Automatic annotation (TrEMBL):
InterPro entries: DTB_synth_BioD (IPR004472), P-loop_NTPase (IPR027417). Its EC number is 6.3.3.3. Belongs to the dethiobiotin synthetase family. Gene3D superfamilies: P-loop containing nucleotide triphosphate hydrolases (3.40.50.300). The gene is bioD. It comes from the Bacteria. It comes from Polynucleobacter sphagniphilus. This is ATP-dependent dethiobiotin synthetase BioD.
Amino acid sequence: MKRTPGFFITGTDTEVGKTLVSGALIVKLRETGINTVGFKPVVAGTYLDHNGQSLNEDLETLRIASKLPADQVNHLCPYILDQPAAPHLSAKAKGIHLESDVILKAFHEISRNFDAVIVEGAGGFLVPLNQDENLGDIAQSMNLPVILVVGMRLGCINHALLSCEALKTRNLPIAGWVANTLANAMPLLHENIQTLKERIAAPYLGLIPSLPKDLGKASDMPYSLDALQFAAQHINTP
Ligand SMILES: Nc1ncnc2c1ncn2[C@@H]1O[C@H](COP(=O)(O)OP(=O)(O)OP(=O)(O)O)[C@@H](O)[C@H]1O
Ligand SMILES: C[C@H](N)[C@H](N)CCCCCC(=O)O
Ligand SMILES: [Mg+2]
């Protein structure tokens, strides 16, 4: 396997399977001996576990995949906001100004201790960070090849092609794209994938099927390691 500094995982929208793909890639890279960790620039939305501790589902998934103990979850994200909303708005409601410098510092810190970092974006590619910056700027500063997760539902063709244009405008290399089946498979799934294959100038990394019932997750809970391993079997690493 080629050496990789990691990937920036973006998606056609929020709730399209970025966390599933990020966790699966961490599992895959770790299986080949690459000491890989997950990272999120910002998360919005927390739940209370049975001990009353405030947790975020994406960070828990990335932590479990990265084989880190519970008390190290804060290393995976500099901004943990409680309200599940657009991050700059959740932050503003709490009087917090999201700073790219803070995010990049946390990213460089964690990068020092691992061979590869899988960075999961928040929402789609151009989600705002503050009045002047967005997640696309963060991806550009991190200088990682990008993987686009396409949530296979009606409308995804347009969202995927818009995302590719935005990536191209920023000269960000697309290492590949993943088709992710959401809970309900869409009509003409394979024809939709073919349409995208003909239009996205980057390798197709595979189709993740709908998770089997016993591997499905409650909406605000993390993915299980079994679910990540299932997804990992269906995608290639670029
Ligand atoms: N292959 C799949 N099979 C069944 N359900 C899925 C699949 N992929 C994703 N889902 C469901 O869709 C929801 C969104 O997935 P996920 O959290 O991975 O998206 P996301 O892009 O990371 O969202 P966010 O923008 O909030 O980070 C989850 O609740 C998950 O259960
Ligand atoms: C809270 C949610 N799960 C995501 N983490 C954030 C999604 C932000 C979407 C903003 C938008 O594009 O309108
Ligand atoms: Mg996510």
